[in-house]
Specification:
The protein is of the alpha+beta class and 226 residues long. Helix content is 23%, strand content 35%. This is Lipoprotein.
Length: 226
């Protein structure tokens, strides 16, 4: 699971077609040494809030139906309801800020592997094909956190079928993953990742178009201090 895969869950599929290219998708995972942790998924459209506010007043734009605030909240509520039924997932919460156009979902997991199939299942319910496969694991003995990512080959093909004006929406759009730990990080396998000053957080930020086109891989193996 990653936030890029949560387009539908965080209403990405509704609003992206009518936005400018300024939006950010953020995935945050906070791991505890006992293997439990928290997830916060955010889509931040605040850089385009003026345009989004104008678009929300219309019925459709460029052939895309513009959702009402009620429809957006309904879709978010359905995603939350699904998460609440998922094994190992508790304390599911969501929020929407229609002044700045920011949506979040957060929850606690018993084991990081609990989140591996969530995205695939949610997208399947909405009849949306996944653009990548992503899985997580945490070895409590070796204190190693791993994220395995692999783009689906058809994602680039489908993206290239889009009209130029629709592709342009993704220019400048970013995906950020942030992983926080209780213990200091000794090493990371992904050269694009950055370590915080405290050595207890790892961040990786990239352009969404690079992910779609397979120009960057966000897999990472993070070794913590024992």
């Amino acid at each position: 699971m990653n936030l890029k895969q949560f387009y539908k869950l965080l209403l990405f599929a509704f609003l992206v077609p009518v936005l400018s290219s300024c939006f950010e998708v953020v995935e945050e995972i906070s791991m505890r040494n006992n293997g439990t942790g928290d997830v916060v998924l955010t889509i931040n459209l605040s850089q385009s809030k003026t345009k989004v506010a104008s678009v929300m007043l219309l019925d459709s734009v460029q052939g895309y139906k513009v959702p009402s605030k009620q429809k957006i909240q309904q879709e978010l509520a359905e995603a939350v309801a699904y998460l609440k039924k998922s094994e190992g997932i508790t304390n599911v919460k969501s929020s929407t800020d229609f002044n700045n156009y920011i949506a979040t979902i957060s929850f606690i997991f018993k084991d990081v592997s609990n989140i591996n199939n969530i995205t695939k299942n949610i997208l399947s319910q909405q009849k949306i094909k996944a653009t990548n496969t992503s899985s997580y694991s945490f070895n409590k003995t070796t204190k190693t956190f791993s994220r395995k990512y692999q783009a689906v080959g058809t994602a680039k093909t489908e993206f290239n079928k889009l009209k130029s004006k629709d592709k342009a929406v993704f220019n400048g759009a970013t995906y950020t993953s942030i992983y926080r730990f209780e213990s200091p990080v000794l090493s990371t396998s992904n050269p694009s990742s950055k370590l915080s000053k405290s050595s207890k957080a790892v961040m990786l930020k990239c352009n969404i178009t690079d992910l779609i086109n397979g120009k960057i891989n966000v897999s990472n193996k993070i070794q913590l201090s024992k």
